[in-house]
Structures
1.
Amino acid sequence: MSKNLVIVESPAKAKTIKKYLGKDFEVLASYGHVRDLVPKDGAVDVTNGFEMKYQIIDRNEKHVRAIISALKQADELWLATDPDREGEAISWHLVELLREKGLLKAKPVKRVVFYEITQREVQKAIQNPRDISDDLVNAQQARRALDYLVGFNLSPLLWRKVQSGLSAGRVQSPALRLICEREAQIKAFEPREYWTLLALADKGDQKFSAKLVELSGKKVEQFTLINTVQALAAKATLEKAANGTLHVAAVDKKQRRRNPAPPFTTSTLQQEANRKLGFSASRTMRAAQQLYEGVDIGGETVGLITYMRTDSVSLAQDALVDIRATIARQFGADQVPDEPRFYKTKSKNAQEAHEAVRPTSATRVPKQIAGMLTPDQAKLYELIWKRTMACQMQQAVFDTVTVELRAGADNAFRANGSVLVEPGFMAVYNQSVDTPSGKDDDDDDKRLPAMNVGDTVTLLNVNADQHFTEPPPRYTEASLVKTLEEYDIGRPSTYASIISVLLARDYVRLDGKAFTPTDVGMIVNKFLTDHFSRYVDYEFTAHLEDNLDAVSRGEKQWKPLLAEFWQPFKQQIDDKQELSRQEVSEARQLGTDPASGKPVSARLGRYGPFVQIGTKEDEDKPRFASLRANQRIDTITLDAALALFELPRQLGQLPNGEDVSVNIGRFGPYVRHGGSFVSLKKEDDPYTIELPRAIELIEQKAAALAAATLKTFGESGLRIIKGRFGPYITDGTRRAPVPKNREVDSITALECEAYLAEAAKAPKKGARKTTAAKKTAVRKTATKKTATKKVATKKTTVKKA
């Protein structure tokens, strides 16, 4: 019997902590949240003070039972869930649930937090327990309630007005807006031509280049030269003025120092892991969670990094001592600054975490433990370790030089160069940056020949290069996370889930590393920005996040905050109920069908994007065709749209005279011959497939059917086939299983007809299952209602109705 029961979220964390606490402590995992809002309307009772109705999460019910069983044998309950709002709420929910069951009457409940899972920090936390923080719990409940109120009220409106199955999120929607607005900027972008002139020069057999900065006495800007004529005229002017030489008019030498970047926060870790390792935000957080909770390294299970959900860039004093000592050993004492570097965060709340993401011990050098980690763990640990070491190392020092070279009195070129003199922190880590090309722009080691004022250099050539301005780049995971942080949308713990939800809902797709919105995403965004602009407004979302932070600090009350949000939101929901689908659907006019003279449009319907010829006001019904997988409403052309109406295509005839055509049906593209059908393969395109390939597919199916045929019945078309789940009878259209007590050889054609007729009369299996499932659900609900005596709420008990 253990005197103390400790609860954490995950079994990995439980395993690590158990080793640190010894035999007097039993450590169990809750496997995340144990309760959540009941999944139905009214879970947040807006008419009764925003009372929240919870129930045990089904998948975690067995873990709750295990905790209850262990608690009966324990004297004290210790709550060691994560040190943030979600962790605080998990502990609170568990305590509320246990109190309802009368299991905590005489047992102390203690809350402990630690930001690294090491023996020292865990034992230190046990010596300093506290109570559950109502402020953190209230902030989490407010966030959960807000997300629920938006989802359960806005999503049904999307189902009715746009497309079934859609949903809108309080934080995901502004993120979607960012991606859609960037796409609109790219679409509207008109490139501008401009030219640059570069002098290729030589000094002492060392070639270098210099950029034109002054032409005919005027400063050269980006759009000074905008066409071939101007560029070639300028080239001729410069070559004539230079007459083969450039004169050194000025030399400016400086020493430049670069400081290292701060240690990682959640956001910067996700950004760097995406840029340097190609990790998605969710992949980064998954590996970081494993490193935090504990990894077996040489028989010792230990947490390798501090808590990974943080806005803080500060480092603990003992960590600084450890880091500086490790730098001295690994890179030399001269690489340690006289004083530690201190960094300040811009965040007002810093997610309740007191440190940046860092190794729990700087002495664990990546190469020494890499073999004991998974590939993802090893890569991420090395990234964190190097960034942490670099942030406390010496500056990088560069010698820079800028040289002005004149061609005559009125023209000048400028050459820039720099030499890395002392690498400092750059010997360990260099921060990556976002550029339009996706590559780092770093020209830190461009050397120039020695030059002094009055020198002349040989002009080898003047190159005129044509350029075009480029649209803003699409968001990558790294740049999206950075922008969300800049706009104060969401919090570190939510960035990965925001991106995952947008991808899962098919609102956006990743093309390489870049996000592009889908047709559905564009239309959902249009609906929200047109009709619920306040709730996808960046400033409004950020202000709401600030208010939630204020709740977590005890500066605001959570229920008045909910009331302030709910009243205008509900009014707007009510006002938009009468919108027609035409008012919210994004119909794009493509042009006119030359065959019928009717308008052609692209739009989103209940079953996806499609193109339409004609309108519902026409005497004849409009014609419809679904877009192909690689086509989009906002980019499809008239010609591409009309091509979609070419189906069904007639391909020709088989030797037996049967017509062969290709079309797209409910289950995908297919070839038809006579009354038979053959599905196309993934590599086959219904718009380009020709008769020889169609015949090949027909013959393949015939061969497979022949190989599987157990018995045929003359010219009747009846046959018995060897199926995956046993032999069955078919006439090409209908199907019936062969009774288990019958031998295939003994069945007659007349019996086959009888079996087929009987199978046609039988109710569909899906219908039987649905009915049975409904009855089972009703019984389960009734049982639950009988067994449940109370519905838990925040500090309030609601009696059974």
2.
Amino acid sequence: MMFREIAGRSRRVKRLATTTTLTLAAQSAVGVMLVHAFTADVAFAQAAEQAPDPDAIVVTARRREESLQNAPVAVAALTGAKLNQYVVVNVSDLAKFVPGMVVGKQVTGSSASIFLRGVGSSSLSAGFDQSVSFNIDGIAMSRGREIGLAQYDLRSVQVMKGPQALFFGKNATGGVIAVDSNNPGNKFEGSLSAGYGFQGNETYVDGYLSGPLTDTLGARFAFHANNTEGYFRNTAGTAADMLQQAAEPNNAFVRDPTDSRRGASKSAAGRLTLLYKPNDALTMNLKMSGNYYTDNGASDLYERKCAAGRTIPAATSGAAAPFADCQIDGRSDHARLPVEVARTMRYTRADGKPYTKLVSGSSVLNTQYETEPVDITSITAFYGFRQTSGDDMNGQTRAIWNSQKSTMKQFSEELRAGTKFDGPVNFTVGAYYAHVDFTYNIDSYTNVAPLDPVTQTYATLGRNSGFKGETWSGFFEAILTPTPELEISGGARYSHESKNSYEQFLPENSRYASVYSQNLLVNDKYREANLSPQATIRWKPSDAVTAYAAYKEGFKAGGYNISQVFLASTTLASALANGRFGAETARGFEGGIRTTLLGRSLHFNVTAYRYKYADLQVQFYNPQTLSQSVANAGALRVQGIESDFTYRVPGVRGLDFHGSLAYNDAEYQGFIGQCYAGQTFSLGCNQLRNAAGIYNGQIFSGRTPPKAPKLGAQFGSTLEVPVSGDIRATFTGDVTYSSKYNYTDTLRPDAVQNRFARVDASVAVGNEAQGWRLSLIGRNLTDKLVVTSANDMTFTGGTGTGSTTAPSVLADLNAVVERGREIYLEARFKF
């Protein structure tokens, strides 16, 4: 039997209607107008020969292959070819092509900040699930560290927006990023590419080998490796400068600068895919991958942004910061931890240099058994990682240091059975199970103290924490097609979540026994169940038009915050009360029109949505107590309109245009949250007064949540022209725009990313017949340094918080910054 490939699967605009009824009415009106406007083209499409659409993008948003134009789901899909045009190898880069999506690492390096339509999770707490989760080759992931994994040799990336309950294993409230890698084909082939990035002295190489081993077995091996010396500049002073500044009060240690560049990293990754098809009924697809990543610290991603327009950095515990500036300009000071301190702390390098080391691996077996009445699918997966790091959190002149080790092991199994009866009714049923074992241990050096003679450490505090969790869920969907034009589907997922969490503070430096707990151990058991229904109506009057409306719900389990700081006064009861948080749920409507026009040369789509999130899980960092708190907000309402188009110019080979526009109106409701550091009564910290007369809360109701730009847009074009013989040149250009947004969880008024536009472009010359291509790639040519998230900088202010009389001293900010302009030269060979 011949082996064959099997696919693995800015101005403010008028507010949207504020009731579900009005929203659905508006969607219906838009649909009617579009259908009437395109009547002539529909008739043309019905009369034309029904040849395959050459520009159709295949998606698996409903775990079945279908054209993007037919899928009744809000999804942004990017092909592997599109990602290769701009050297996109991580999720942070991917976000630049999805309007309204904001992605970045956290300052601590423990996780990520992922927001879509203003819904997301900052993940300051290491045990916190993401509202926007990942699904990589069928493995459901929700820790956030996945943004650090290299993504290469991809078939597609699909960003499903809004609640996702039925199709991707674990329930998600904000959306799912689904990554599908390539499978072996029915012929031998390979590719090798190498590139150089000029700004960061970056080199990379990737490639694959693929083909049939027998008539029934195919294999594909893909790999990627990267090395960069660092994009940003380190402005730390010399050892002589440090001695003059007396940087460590009451301590003779001198903190030498690290490398002259910031953001240096190395990575290597490989994936082996085996595709076995002994007969027409059975297909088994095994993917095994490993990733290695190391850098010179998560701190190299951030810059100090001074508070309230100050031009001089705030002192850290009395120590000035002469080597830092107050600008987002790609410059900040970073230094190693004094080696005398480093050698006494867990997980810190003996030389005291900041670093991150992440090793991860996964294996997933996707088995499909196709019979005449029923298709059965099994996805068995294992995923795990081990990360250690040591990070300089406040610049060179005062050591505020955090070192950590986190590990995770996850096993999951998903079973699905779907009927394919000839009649109008079909069903899909299934079950999902996952077991997670997660640990997160830290040591922190935050206050100057002598060596503890008993514990033999300079560390201020230490903590061991983690959890073991289980997810059981079952789902059901019925699909009714009473006519060829109409499809009605509905179902639900029942989920049961359990977590057994623990957190214990360790006896570190006895100098601070009166400040931090030394031995408190907390064990917490969390149990919760949920039923999330979903219903969709899809109407397809012709091949040219698809309209749909859907009601969806989503669920994200609660748990216990394992990243609390226990003060000496903390009791078991208060730790449990402050650490527990409830589930986050979402419900709402969306609807859209998908059109294929002008003889299939134009695809134009519009989607409208309105969702309400109840008990939204939010996180805050208190820079005075070093505590990371988790709470449930009252509600978040998001509503908006999104549109996109692709246009292939008829009669002009290789010329196309594409674009997207997203308007999102997000608003907190019924929510009183934590004040920012230094926010006094007069500045709005006027809620939740304690017995001492200090206020602890501010009103968030009616305000836009963080990382929620109201307007996002993208426009681009590709042009392919002949050069000589079979040699052709390809020109691409894309402009991405985002309106302003606040990048702090506490909505500090001085923490706003102003509106910006990025320009990406590339030119490639190649010969497809001979299999070679040479590309010059420019990313962010407008050189915009964009802040994706920020937290108050420890011990740099924050006094006067909640006071009616004390003056305000705002803390400086640790701002995580994306790279500016990047230029790459790449050569690719295919055989």
